[in-house]
Amino acid sequence: MRIRIALATASALAMSAVVALAATPLPDQTSHGATISGLAKADYASGHDRGAAVSAAASAWGAEVSAAAKANAASAGAAGKAIGAAAAAAGKAKGAAASAAGKAKGTAAAAAGKAKGAAAAAAGQANGSAASATGRATAAAAAAAGEAVGDAASAAGQAHRP
To answer: Where are the domains of the chain?
Structure first.
């Protein structure tokens, strides 16, 4: 059982590492400054054209950064779900193992109780049979003694008769 939990945990960690490696990295931030600087220093027909070029480059850069951040958030969410699913599976496996162990322990205790009860019943019957036999022997001896005393008294009574 512990091996299953260890394997589930290891697979969850491996899955999260794969998701982390597959996440889209944020764009290189050092290249952005050089690009904007180059656009700002270039010759344009008017200041309006220069502003439009710099604005378009900055907007494109912002869109790229935003897309990368959204991709990273989505992959982090997927990794969290994978880790949660692995933890849930490990918890279910652990619970199932504990349940099976409890059921087995209960079954063993019931069997032991039945065996103990059967042994006690057999011992009780044996004791009862022995007591019954002893009682019968005592009763037979008492009856024989009583008969002998009665016979002796009868004989004594016959002997005193005139």
So the answer is: 2-159
